[in-house]
Structures are given as structure tokens and as C-alpha cells.
Specification:
There is one protein chain. It is built from two helices and four strands, in the order E-H-E-E-H-E. By secondary structure, it is an alpha+beta fold. The strands form two sheets. Strands 1-4 form a two-stranded antiparallel ribbon. Strands 2-3 form a two-stranded antiparallel ribbon. Strand 2 and strand 3 form a beta hairpin. The radius of gyration is 11 Å and the shape is globular. Bound molecules: FE3-S4 cluster. The site of FE3-S4 cluster has 15 residues, from helix 1.
């Protein structure tokens, strides 16, 4: 299983992740990314058919703000 979460402290609203993985990531009013699946809680499994999109997004983020884990991602891990 994979879980993902955006570190919104380091996201610079570049907009790359939503282009790579529009079913996983969207942006708030300030352009900061969040995970659509669970409102950026890091608790909802990413569907396997979106793994390639997720990998593209991780590789494309200039600030390394997209966290991915095999476990649900707690706030303090970010
Ligand atoms: Fe932010 Fe990285 Fe996405 S900077 S908008 S999390 S690609």
C-alpha cells in the first residue's frame, strides 16, 4: 500500500504535481497542493492504478514536498 501527503510548509505552489497526478493532487486557494483522496491527511491508500502518476509527481516536485509511505503518514513525520 502507498499513502501520500504534501508538506504544505515547503510546497511553493509550483503546480507540477496536479499536472502529473490530477486524480491525487489539487491546490487550495493559495495554490498550495493537497491530497484529494483524504484532504491531505495521509490516511487513504493511493489506488494502484495511480502509482505511476504518483511517482511522476514525486520526481517532478522541485522542493521534495510530496511524501510517500507504505504506512499512513502522521503529521509529525512531515
Ligand atoms: Fe507544491 Fe511540489 Fe506540488 S512545490 S505544488 S507539492 S509539485
Amino acid at each position: 500500500a502507498k499513502f501520500t501527503r504534501i508538506n504544505q510548509e515547503t510546497c511553493i505552489a509550483c503546480g507540477a504535481c496536479g499536472a502529473s497526478a490530477p486524480e491525487i493532487f489539487d491546490y487550495n486557494a493559495e495554490g498550495i497542493a493537497f491530497v484529494l483522496l483524504d484532504d491531505n491527511q495521509g490516511i487513504e491508500e493511493v489506488p494502484e492504478d495511480l502509482y505511476d502518476d504518483l511517482e511522476d509527481a514525486v520526481d517532478g516536485c522541485p522542493t521534495d514536498s510530496i511524501k510517500v509511505s507504505t504506512q499512513p503518514i502522521e503529521l509529525q513525520e512531515i
